Amino acid sequence: xxxxxxxxxxxxxxxxxxxxxxxxxxxxxxxxxxxxxxxxxxxxxxxxxxxxxxxxxxxxxxxxxxxxxxxxxxxxxxxxxxxxxxxxxxxxxxxxxxxxxxxxxxxxxxxxxxxxxxxxxxxxxxxxxxxxxxxxxxxxxxxxxxxxxxxxxxxxxxxxxxxxxxxxxxxxxxxxxxxxxxxxxxxxxxxxxxxxxxxxxxxxxxxxxxxxxxxxxxxxxxxxxxxxxxxxxxxxxxxxxxxxxxxxxxxxxxxxxxxxxxxxxxxxxxxxxxxxxxxxxxxxxxxxxxxxxxxxxxxxxxxxxxxxxxxxxxxxxxxxxxxxxxxxxxxxxxxxxxxxxxxxxxxxxxxxxxxxxxxxxxxxxxxxxxxxxxxxxxxxxxxxxxxxxxxxxxxxxxxxxxxxxxxxxxxxxxxxxxxxxxxxxxxxxxx
Length: 431
Prior knowledge:
Blueprint: E1 4-8, E2 15-23, H1 27-35, E3 45-50, E4 56-65, E5 76-83, H2 85-96, E6 101-103, H3 108-115, H4 121-132, H5 136-146, H6 149-173, H7 184-203, H8 206-214, E7 216-221, H9 228-236, E8 254-260, E9 263-269, H10 279-294, E10 297-303, E11 318-324, E12 337-338, H11 347-359, H12 371-389, H13 393-411, H14 417-424
Parallel strand pairs: 1-6, 7-9, 7-10, 10-11, 11-12
Antiparallel strand pairs: 1-2, 2-5, 3-4, 4-5, 8-9
């Protein structure tokens, strides 16, 4: 935290503009060394950037943010340079020559914002998700979480637990005092029970957050030559998988990511599931079964004139029976949908059906965004459950303290030092 750090905070070079950020106790001195006199705080001014020998490097817009009113909470300077690799490299060399300055590590700007109280961990993680978002729903989920709404919910729950604990401990310590509320059971435990239900309902939405961040997984399965690879290619509108009439052509799990109505949908083409003596194909079948266990939706493909197979997954995925090669056969009611990848019949209906199902997972609102959040929410829920079911008042109060601590670990208010390196290392350099 005593170092002054710098890094390119904009996109890959070359670009129209390159934004270089400097943050730390020597940020303003570094800016003076490059541009001379500093502009007024928060006012963009055009300045000439020079190296230590006085040679002109570039002209840049310069913005100065003095602590604590900056993203990191430290003195911070931004140079809006021309987006040339040579220009940025020259500025880097000029900064490297200054004492006390170094290149920022991945996520270090955001970590300093966290350390200085500008963000909590939920907001920091959501900011990383916002930068990485590729679909509209990923953007919406990140926005829901990155500007304090999620953190406020967890903090409010922690405060309610703290208040309940205070009432219980007051009864334990000052039972004879007239101004201490008496009936703890009536005044506290009903409220704690309501809070338990709220947390459990919130946890029930965890799958929605996982689907939005990581994608809605659709497994395409069926016997050999059912048209699985042809369907993957048709959905992707490009040749992703090799298609032949030879059974067992697909040996590994192939996948393609599509944006369907703002949702990330991941389609997995699997090897034909059958008994085989071929070692490679047998491994493909094993991987296909593993994919099924993780799927949110299974498309069971069979040629229309074959006998419909019964199919069960070990997970919770819904199975949609799809009859293929509609260009050769009449549709049959034994299938939920009949398609032809050759002439395109039924493909729009299939896309619309998948879109309808994925839209049911999440349409807005606060949901747990990461497995870390889910773990601590479950921990808090178990503490509250133990408190509700307990008999010894002091033990029940201690369980409420444990629940509040677990909620505090989500936002980073309590005991998360060992997590910080892992969390911020997932950020890009310059953020």
